Amino acid sequence: MYRILIADDFPLFRRGVKEMLAEGLGPVKFGEAGNARELLDLVQKKPWDVVIMDISMPGTTGTEALKQVKHDRPALPVIVLSMHPEDQYAVRMFKAGADGYLNKASAPQELVQAIKKVANGGQYVSPQVAERLALTMKASDGRPPHELLSDREYEVLRLIGSGKTVSEIAESLNLSVTTVSTYRARILNKMQLKNNAELTRYALMHQVAE
């Protein structure tokens, strides 16, 4: 049974999402938040498999609310379900830590698919969002950033993208943990990314993961 927290300031919309997901996912335990404070309070107090949140909520910006959720529960998957088109907010929300982004006009089956994917550790990126992310991450000379990496850096990127820890990568490549951490820092710097989550999204998007 999925435990899903829905954060949106319109009760009727939350009700519609609950009915739709109950039909598409079967038995589901739901929680509801109408503003950012309720969202953060429920995230801290109860365990959830997935959070579905809007960008526009009373209390703070959607970006700040998302960052706080990820600060409190880094491993908790978050899907942004918004009325705003992907080309306006998707990249911004992914950079803030979102695991998926869907327009409210999307088909119900797409949300069900996204929930199943992020709940299993994946990320949901629509073709439109993937294209936008690719354009955003292009290097200044037109080459994808991963093509600027050394052979060893590229290998470390592939392993990070496949979900391996620094210790597992060190063992796999017969390197010290310190050396792998150094390569990771170089990769982040060269690709202008902030953390492993962004590296993983990039690797999946460009199909460079192991």
TrEMBL record:
The entry's keywords: DNA-binding, Phosphoprotein, Transcription, Transcription regulation
GO MF annotation, one: DNA binding
PROSITE patterns from the UniProt entry: HTH_LUXR_1 (PS00622), HTH_LUXR_2 (PS50043), RESPONSE_REGULATORY (PS50110)
GO biological process: phosphorelay signal transduction system; regulation of DNA-templated transcription
Start and end residues of each HTH luxR-type domain: 142-207
Response regulatory domain: residues covered: 3-119
UniProt modified residues of type 4-aspartylphosphate: D54
Protein name as catalogued: Response regulator transcription factor
Lineage: Bacteria, Pseudomonadati, Nitrospirota, Nitrospiria, Nitrospirales
